[in-house]
Amino acid sequence: MTKKKVMLTQKGYDKLVEKLDFLKSVRRIEIADRLKAAIALGDLSENSEYVDAKTEQAFLEGEIQDLEAKIHNSEIIQENSAGDVVAIGSKVVVRDLEFNEDEIYKIVGSDEADPDSNRISNESPVGAAILGKPAGTTVQVHAPGGVFQYKIMEIVKA
């Protein structure tokens, strides 16, 4: 089975590495200390402290494995300050043709998407529709709320 590449900016990659380091160096130790304290209480069969700590440990180890896989399968994308076409890393001004309103989006990989900060995934309806298109292009965006038309006004220089 081929693992899916995780598209990340350098900043996004660094955040994942930092989080992984924190989980391994701080959280693992905290949970190990909780387990030791719970074991010291005695009978493990009726020890809710022990059960809670073991459950938390399992979740932590799963999160660590997930982060390690993402880091291992990551591809660092180059920030595209202003290319000829929209790419991952581009900052783009698009106009909603129905409302004649402009929005500025940064196109990022799905692991870095944050719509509240106008960082949209290359896999999102808008991101997928504008990816690879030059400024001046009008695209149809098929979204859960219907079909919308956007015009790529500008690929912004950073």
Provide structural commentary:
The chain has two domains: 6-76, Helix Hairpins (Orthogonal Bundle); 91-156, Transcription elongation factor, GreA/GreB, C-terminal domain (Chitinase A, domain 3, Roll), CATH 3.10.50. The chain contains three helices and seven strands; from the N terminus they run βααββββαββ. With 158 residues, it is of the alpha/beta class. The model has no long low-confidence stretch (mean pLDDT 88). It starts with 5 loop residues before the first strand and ends with a strand. Helix content is 39%, strand content 25%. Helix 1 packs antiparallel against helix 2. Strand 6 and strand 7 (146-156) form a beta hairpin. It is elongated and about 70 Å long. The strands form two sheets. The protein has a five-stranded mixed beta sheet with strand order 5-4-3-7-6. Strands 1-2 form a two-stranded parallel ribbon.
